[in-house]
Amino acid sequence: MSGRREEILDAALAIADERGLEAVSMRALAERVGVTPMALYRHVKDKAALLDGMVGRLLSALLPTDGADGGDGVLSGEEPTWDQRLDALAHACRAVTQRHPWAAHLLFSRPAVTPDAVRAVDIIYLALVEAGVPESEVPRLERLISTFVIGFAASEASGRFTPGALDPRGRRGQLPAGELPGHSRVGRWLDLPVDLTAEFEADLADIRRMVVGAAARGGE
Helix and strand tally (H, E) in the chain? Predict the structure, then answer.
């Protein structure tokens, strides 16, 4: 990626951080980098290409980097195992969304088409293959894993996991007794504070077990 294109995409990320994704336009971007809108088309041909480039720029933070520690990306140096690579990618995606709360919506709405975006998906493909998942099942499991990770990050960033104006007990109290039998069964767990980091780790452990199970079924 050229230095000028990187500058343009970083400026687009900055606009989204400051004013939201809907504020990102070719005109606003041209003003930010100090060029005419027409000059941008040498680097991004239209708004769709700009959004795809922003996805790639976000996902570039998930890729391995040189040195012992890849920061938000996958550890490099000593070769990590397939499950360590999946975990590192998931943690990096969550970290990116915590820094850029609007990012999850963009990641959900755009396909992985830029080189950096495709490389991030390839990390998952290769990890699943090395885990022993049948190649025919790899694309489906990649979609499942990506949807979970981005969905968790989106829900966390949007406040969906927070109790809102009422705690779980208060919400249940708005309905007549017996209206929520499922809630009644698990109510004492709903009233506990939620540690989202611990929950994320537990979910990743479940995903690892799912991958191992898919590999075992493929070997039968």
Answer: 11, 0
